[in-house]
Structures are given as C-alpha cells and as structure tokens.
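Worked example
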Amino acid sequence: MKVLYVLCCLILWGWGGMAQTGEKNFIDQNYVEVTGTAELEIVPDEIYLRIVISEKDKGKKSVEEQEKEMVNVLKNLGIDVHKDLAIRDLSSDFKYYLLKRTAIQTEKEYQLCMHGADKIGRLLTDLEAVGISNISILRVDHSQIAKFRRKVKTDAVKIAKEKAEDFAGAVGQEIGRALYISENEGGYYPRQNAVANVRVRGVGSVDSTPVLDFEKIPLKYTVVVRFELK
C-alpha cells in the first residue's frame, strides 16, 4: 500500500509540475504538417565505359598488342591511363582448347572513366580503327554528387517551410519552430548508377565523329515537416 501511495504522489507531482511550467507535450501542441519535394537534374561528368579485348583465333593480334594500341589511343586523346583506366577482369577459357585442341581464348576487361562526353565519340571511332569495338556503358555519375544530394534535401525542407507559412497565413496564424522533420526515403531517386540513354546529336565539323548526349541524372527528395502553429 505504501508503494502504491508513493507512486500515485509521483504521478500527481509530475502532472502538477507540467501544469505549473506551462509546458506542452509534443502531441498537445498546435502544429501544421506539410511535405516538401525538391528535384534537380544534373549533367554527368563521369561516364564509366566497359572495354573488352579478346584473342579468339590464331593469327589475330594478341591481347597484349591490342592493349598497347588501346593505351596509345587513350593517351593521344589526353586521357590519364594511370588514373582513369583499370582492369576489371582477366580470364582464360580452356573449354575449346580441351575439346578441339585449338588456341586458348584470352580476354581482358577494362573500366575507363571519361570526364565528360565530349571525347567519347572520337574515342569510339579511334578504338574501332584498331579493331576494338566491344565497348559499353557501365554507369554515369557526377564527381560532386554528394553536394547535389545535400542541396536537394535542404531545398525540400525550404519548400516545406514555404508551404507551412502559406497554410498558416490562410487562417490568420503563423508558424514557429520546427517540431519534427522526417526524410522520406521512398521519394529519393538518385539514379546515378543507372545506365544513361545516349543520344547522337550529329557529327563534329572537324573530325566527323558523332557527338553524344547523355541523359541527365535526376535527383528527387521528399521530406515531412511539422511546424509549431501560433
């Protein structure tokens, strides 16, 4: 009985203390809840290409010879091969050798990072001229993608605040401090790792190589914010 009496006193004291200080619980405060959505499209400045060099038949150029020719092409275009070119896979296929006693098929796969699309058309043309045509797009990205993500997030919060001010003003009130901010991950689509659609815009007037345009990277972010209503 004594324990129950002490517990009741503590509860009554807590309620009394809140009443004396005038503090309100979060759910007891008047607030307006809004969502803010911001979007941004950025032009990729990093295009990752997959280049495959293979040696299939006797009499053809070896992988090493093709590799040297590829490196020369890249250097002639001003590409830093030490920084932007990397080997992705090295494999030897013994299947046909064991069955037919023919030459071993050797293959090398590379990843090349191109900083912008202006040289890609020339790159494809020059590599094809030396017999390298197995080239595909791995992904596109931006060197400052983290900065743009933060910008979209903060813009979404600013838009939410503007909406809350409009709603509060419509009923003759104003907003106070933010009581709650929630990120809506379901509304965030940073598709920087998706393969972009490539559009051929035409040919350059100097070297007659195709000019490629890459799809912009779309960023979208949605937040839910509750503001105090005064």
User: Anything to note?
Assistant: The two ends are 45 Å apart (CA to CA). Strands lie at 31-42, 46-55, 85-93, 105-114, 135-141, 175-184, 198-203, 210-214, 217-229.
